[in-house]
Amino acid sequence: MARVAFREADVNLMARMMRAEAEGEGKQGMLYVGNVIVNRDVADCADFRDLRSIRDVIFQVQGGNYSFEAVQKGNVFYQRAREAEKKLARKNLQGWRQHPAKYALWYFNPYAPCPPTWYDQPLTGQFKQHCFYEPAAGTCDSVYMG
């Protein structure tokens, strides 16, 4: 059963974002980015309270900037979705989750060792260049649902 409602347009959009954000980290890295995208759609807390679709997540603006750098800067994001990434996006949308991004709402590439917290959120782990962070205990129980 799918974790969130989605249409084929959502699969394409998510596939493009996964590729743009993590193509260099292979299929596993792209799946982890997909976890974060779906988790933000599921989360009903913090910065993600008003997100109700994959499109809302991808095009969210915070502090005057898109939440995902690839929307603003990424020429890869604006290329057509490929079948390989669409397959990965469907896998995430249908419920695939895995550590360190299983419950993560944030990730970034610090170009250095991962800090133990990021904006007071605990580090759950690292995969290649990306550090993943899930909400502090008791602050976003909805991300653990579904």
The H/E string reads HHHEEHHEEEE
Number of strands: 6
Uncertain parts: none
- Mean pLDDT across residues: 95
Strand arrangement within the widest β-sheet reads: 3-6-5-4
Distance between the termini: 9 Å
Based on Cα principal axes, name the global outline: globular
Task: Please give the radius of gyration in angstroms.
Answer: 14 Å
Q: Pairing-aware structural class of the strands and helices?
A: alpha+beta
Q: Report the β-strand fraction as a percent range.
A: 5-15%
Biggest β-sheet strands, sense, barrel: 4 strands, antiparallel
What percentage of residues falls in helices of 4 or more residues? 25-40%
How many helices in DSSP terms?
Answer: 5
Protein name: Cell wall hydrolase
Domain Cell wall hydrolase SleB: 24-133
Keywords: Hydrolase
GO molecular function: hydrolase activity
Structure in words:
This is Cell wall hydrolase. InterPro entries: Cell_wall_hydrolase_SleB, SleB_dom1. Keywords: Hydrolase. One of its GO terms (molecular function) is hydrolase activity. Residues 24-133 form the Cell wall hydrolase SleB domain. The protein has 146 residues and is α+β, with helices and mostly antiparallel strands. Helices cover 36% and strands 14% of the residues. The chain is built from 5 helices and 6 strands, in the order H-H-H-E-E-H-H-E-E-E-E. It has helices at residues 8-22, 26-42, 54-58, 69-73, 83-93, and strands spanning 61-62, 65-66, 106-108, 117-118, 121-127, 130-133. The strands form 2 sheets. A 4-stranded antiparallel sheet has the order 3-6-5-4, with helices on one face. A two-stranded antiparallel sheet has the order 1-2. Helix 1 packs across helix 2. The longest helix is centred in the N-terminal third of the chain and has 17 residues, at 26-42. The termini are close together. The mean pLDDT is 95.
